[in-house]
Amino acid sequence: MEPNIPYYKPLGKEIEVFTHAYSNKIPFLLKGPTGTGKSRFIDYMAHSLDRKLITVACHEETSATDLIGRYILKGAETVWTDGPLTTAVKEGCILYLDEIAEARPDVMVAIHPLTDHRRELYIDKLGQSLKAHPDFMLVASFNPGYQRGFKEMKPSTRQRFTAMGFSYPPPQDEADILSNESGVDADTAKKLVAIGNKIRNLTELGLTETVSTRLLVDAAKLIHSGLPKRLSVHVGVVEPLTDDPDIITSLKDLSDLMI
Length: 259
Ligand code: ADP
Known about the structure:
There is one protein chain. Helix content is 42%, strand content 17%. The chain has eleven helices and nine strands. The strands form three sheets. The protein has a five-stranded parallel beta sheet, sandwiched between helices. A two-stranded antiparallel sheet has the order 3-4. A two-stranded antiparallel sheet has the order 6-7. It is elongated.
């Protein structure tokens, strides 16, 4: 295995499943809330399969042109420039469309012929169809967002992917992740995880997104670099979650008792 492989703690059969999806070049969908290790997992898999990874963070303005490419003006000439999808298709990379549902609908239209037996990219502006390199694989992530503010993914698109759900790790695994990522001791990691799980269980707060592993890792890093523990939890975990002053006060009080 390559040196510098990113640290990833497996939580189920995801490595085995992805490896098989990759050898069959079946598009892969990672479902789950933000900060649950989806990007880290893909980074890890790309390293262990020794494939180049190209990541596109999709947002509501992301269009098929952004992915496929465009003519740009260079002096008096217009020059065609490949977008990240075209590069990945040509060179046999893993393309990771992070938060695919956020992108414009024409992105889904562009990827459809790549996600079935055709494995082809149609480049409208060049009037060309490009056969995907045998090593090319499409991966996407999607936040199902059972609460407000997230876009849905159409069944016609999602059924083109093999899919796996990502969620918050079991407490001991999450504590190991915190220690590994930040260097905090096992006891502090355990307490941070307990705070995380306590807040996750307070569903009545109606938070759009609850405490992710990422937030706990950030708090752990602040603690490890010497910021007082309670303050680290306030700024690393509580404040990013909400702007409601009453909720902030009660979450700070609650976490102060736990660390
Ligand atoms: P997502 O892509 O789901 O939003 P990330 O992959 O960026 O989330 O994960 C956020 C952070 O959480 C990572 O940077 C890493 O520190 C940590 N993390 C979460 N799950 C794991 C895991 N299973 N192994 C290692 N680190 C993890």
